[in-house]
Amino acid sequence: MSCQCILLLLLVAGAAAVEVQRPRGVSLSKRQFYEDGKPFTCLDGSKTIPFDRVNDDYCDCQDASDEPGTAACPNGNFHCTNAGFRPVFIPSSRVNDGICDCCDTTDEYNSGAICQNTCKELGYKERESLLKLAEITKEGFLLKQQLIQEAMRGAKLEEVRSGKGDLETKVEALRTVKEAAEQPEREAKERHLKAWEDQKAAIRMEKDKARMVQVFLELDEDSDGFVSLADLLSHPELDPDSDGLFTEAEAQGLLGGLDRVDTFGFESVWNNIKDKYASLQPSVAPGEAPQEEVPEPASDNDSETYPEDDVPEEEEEEEDEDDDDYEEDYKVDGFTLSCKRKCVGTQKARDEFNEAEKALREVDDQIRNIEKEISFDFGTESEFTYMYNQCYEMPTSEYVYKLCPFNRVTQKPKFGGSETSLGSWGKWAGPEDNIYSVMKYEHGTGCWQGPNRATTVSLICGTETAVTSTSEPSRCEYLMEFTTPAACPEPPSPDSLYPPVHTEL
């Protein structure tokens, strides 16, 4: 019911009553068709009869229009004037049936039923109710205006985009500062890596030489200072082609075409056999600790650091005599480096850049969220924007229903159990003249051997935002009533609410 109709009804009790003569059961809007003393033509045009046959308790017209005030026609309707309340139509079969259907008792004029006219009381109660509804509508509409002002979606997006441009400029400037500050650090790290690699190479070379000397002594079984063909042939694993037959010619090939070599000539032989040679002696003597492998450099996840002795002397910097400078160890990519106080500036530049880059990522996320948000239809003036990313619950004796506008509707057992989808956001589904009065949520969890669940949400004007009722009128089809200020219409102007009104009598 519109506000105009509501407030029009409020004026009925105080309006001047003017009696308009017409046959019993005829509404004021059809009075023109019933003129006393003139023949009556059925409203469907099928027949014309004398006027004295109107309400004679005999049905002459097929459309029952000649018996508006009796029960003669099974398809007739009786008009209750109900002065002081609301006029209504009732089936003619209820006329003079002993039950008062009209609050003004006019339907029981000849039944002998004892009825009281309750129209004024009913009208008073309805007017009280309608006054409250009018106040709610007025207050709700004011809240709706606030919601519209708060929406401001387009301006919000442009503001964030503008801020992103400033942040991008700041990030690039800080990136330049950071990279310049990190340059000495990168160079120091490269020097450390090179020194460490050189040290490892030297250690490996020394170990290889020691191993070569050991193998020479093992092969020189007669201790004559030479390794001969016979010495090599005693080690079949040195067969170059691994065919199971180690010949003198193959052994001589390993010796560089010679019959034997001394310690100096053995170096080239060692390069040919070291990958295959198997010592016949125990590699670790009793009581001797095994030889340690060359340690690997610290990785990104390794907490070990280089020993100070590993750093070449030329890399050590002289201490600055300035009291503000001091040595400080810090870790970069798993390597611990030392630097003066200027390293604090490097870390500061890095931190500032990281903070700006993080802020830029957050702005990008914010823009994506806003762009997703404005893709929804939030009403003609964005009045429904405030519901986005919100959820509203309503508990019943068995379930807790949750409505998340523009997202989903769910149902969860009150005393434990999984959540069931009653539909995801589909579309606005109100009538053409008020499309934003109904929401449709579709493609919910499928019912057992039935359709997917779906929910229709009716939006009602109210000062609070809440789910007020839920029902399942048919299997897997749910109905909800949802109050919100965004659904409140604009109240009519006072001048349009006070036309002259006459009570039907």
UniProtKB/TrEMBL annotation:
Keyword terms of this UniProt record: Coiled coil, Disulfide bond, Endoplasmic reticulum, Signal
Keyword Endoplasmic reticulum: yes
Region of interest: Disordered: 283-329
CC per GO annotation: glucosidase II complex
All residue ranges annotated as the MRH domain in the record: 389-490
InterPro entries cross-referenced by the UniProt entry: EF_Hand_1_Ca_BS (IPR018247), EF_hand_dom (IPR002048), Gtb1-like (IPR039794), Man6P_isomerase_rcpt-bd_dom_sf (IPR009011), MRH_dom (IPR044865), PRKCSH (IPR036607), PRKCSH_N (IPR028146)
Keyword set includes Transmembrane: no
Chain ranges of the EF-hand domain: 207-242
GO molecular function, one term: calcium ion binding
Residues spanning the signal sequence: 1-17
Name of the protein: Glucosidase 2 subunit beta
Organism: Takifugu rubripes
